[in-house]
Design a protein that fits this description.
The structure is a single chain. This protein is an alpha/beta fold and 436 residues long. 37% of the residues lie in helices and 23% in strands. It has 12 helices and 16 strands. The chain has a 7-stranded mixed beta sheet with strand order 3-2-1-4-7-6-8, with helices on both faces. Strands 13, 14, 15 and 16 form a 4-stranded antiparallel beta sheet that branches. Strand 2, helix 3 and strand 3 form a beta-alpha-beta unit. It starts with a helix and ends with a helix.
Length: 436
């Protein structure tokens, strides 16, 4: 056969394959544009869930993932968390054992996610009855209302498999940003696009919800590290539709939250007294550097912002107006919603250096209280964060710690440690749940 004829045929074969792929992706990319986000009505019944978290050498992030799972607004009695701790450090396992979870520690010679999930199913308490199972990865974080939304969606879906919207929030590097872009491309083409055309959505490997009895049987048939694709094939062979809920973010985001290079926080602060002062503040942390920006508000502006989400008006001051613009961008970045989460109150005594001396600031916070309801900012009340008689000493300085401060701390036997009031409030609730 003529060489050029063979080359011509081979060229056409490649063209047909590539053109077919492009056409496939193009059709579903266009279809994704017409995908609507239906309103999900409140479920009539509450399902029992078990959250399985296979964690292979995820020592730096697994504890935060567990905290996020335990901090759900969904009733504690209606869900359990099981962590499969595979080849993690003994200290990590000791810390995990303090939480109200089922901790499984397998000893695989060759570890795969499929093996971990199978191990979990075989070792779940026999007396526990579940309606559905949720699969999370060891570095996934979910929002507080994730289980509530999944419960509502599970009822209207009327299917044995659901995929939620997974978002990659780690965008510190170019590679991470590319990963986030590809994640959204996959969501658009292989999930929104498929659903718009009446086809099953592709599974993402985490943030997936399955009928418990179906999963219990079929996960045992998976053999490779790509267990999600095997399950997807099993669902297809059994004519089971995989539904996709684009509006259930649950903020399942893969993010190394143990030591992120960038963190941002929006908080509304008030110093009480006869004439309380209110201000709205951005607090960004880049590596070890902290940057704050704030604007002052009236009590009326505070109430409008907290209760109705109304931004303070611009007043012509460049810094104030720039802050309002940044606030609008912040709101858009978090899906157009800013809602209060926690009130944190404490009695503070602050000490400053004398004029002309090197910067030094000491604060002592006592009687620290928190609550997640009734967001009247100056109303006193809530759960105690620390044991009675305990407080928090914070020392801020530039450069080296002053010698007299270091000597005082040494004489008192005090050591430096990190502490998050907000994070500790969730840890307290997790410990309380374990005792119920």
């Amino acid at each position: 056969m003529d060489f050029w004829l063979v080359l011509f045929i081979f060229d056409w074969i490649l063209f047909v394959i590539i053109a077919g792929t492009v056409l496939y992706m193009g059709v579903f990319a266009v279809a994704a544009l017409f995908h609507s986000k239906p309103e999900i009505p409140k479920a009539k019944r509450m399902n029992r869930f078990v959250i399985l978290i296979p964690a292979y050498k995820q020592d730096k992030v697994i504890e935060q993932t567990v905290l996020a799972a335990l901090s759900q607004a969904y009733p504690q009695r209606m869900f359990d968390v099981t962590v499969i701790s595979d080849h993690q450090e003994e200290l990590t396992n000791m810390r995990l054992a303090q939480y109200p979870i089922t901790l499984l520690i397998p000893n695989f010679e060759e570890s795969t996610k499929a093996k971990s999930l199978q191990y979990a199913i075989l070792n779940l308490p026999e007396f526990k009855i579940y309606d559905a199972v949720i699969i999370l990865d060891g570095d996934n974080i979910i929002d507080q209302d994730f289980l509530d939304q999944v419960n509502d969606a599970y009822e209207i879906a009327a299917t044995k498999a659901i995929q939620t919207h997974r978002i990659s929030k780690n965008r510190d590097t170019a590679a991470a940003r590319m990963d986030a872009i590809f994640e959204e491309i996959n969501n658009a083409i292989f999930r929104r696009g498929h659903i718009s055309c009446g086809l099953s959505a592709a599974l993402a490997g985490s943030g997936t919800v399955f009928d418990f009895n179906w999963y219990k049987t079929n996960v045992m048939r998976t053999k490779t590290s790509g267990e999600d694709k095997e399950l997807e094939a099993l669902l297809m062979r059994q004519d089971i539709f995989v539904d996709y809920f684009d509006n259930i973010y649950g903020d399942i985001h893969n993010r190394n939250i143990a030591k992120p290079k960038f963190k941002e926080k929006l908080r509304l602060r008030s110093y009480g007294g006869d004439k309380p002062i209110f201000f709205l503040e951005f607090k960004d942390k880049v590596l070890k550097n902290v940057y704050k920006r704030r604007i002052y508000l009236s009590k009326e502006e505070v109430d409008a912002f907290v209760n109705d989400g109304v931004f303070p008006p611009k007043n012509g001051d460049p810094k104030h107006d720039e802050f309002i613009d940044e606030l609008a961008i912040f709101k858009e970045r978090y899906r157009g919603s800013i809602v209060p989460n926690t009130i944190m109150q404490y009695d503070r005594v602050a000490y400053m250096n004398k004029p002309g001396e090197d910067y030094l600031r000491l604060t002592v916070d006592r009687d620290i209280r928190y609550r997640r309801e009734d967001f009247e900012i100056n109303k006193i009340g809530g759960k105690s964060l620390l044991k009675e008689g305990y407080g928090i000493l914070e020392i801020k300085f530039i450069g080296a710690m002053p010698l007299f401060v270091a000597k005082a701390l040494n004489d008192l036997g005090l050591q430096r440690q990190t502490f998050s009031k907000f994070g500790s409030s969730y840890l307290n609730e997790a410990k309380e749940a374990r005792l119920l």
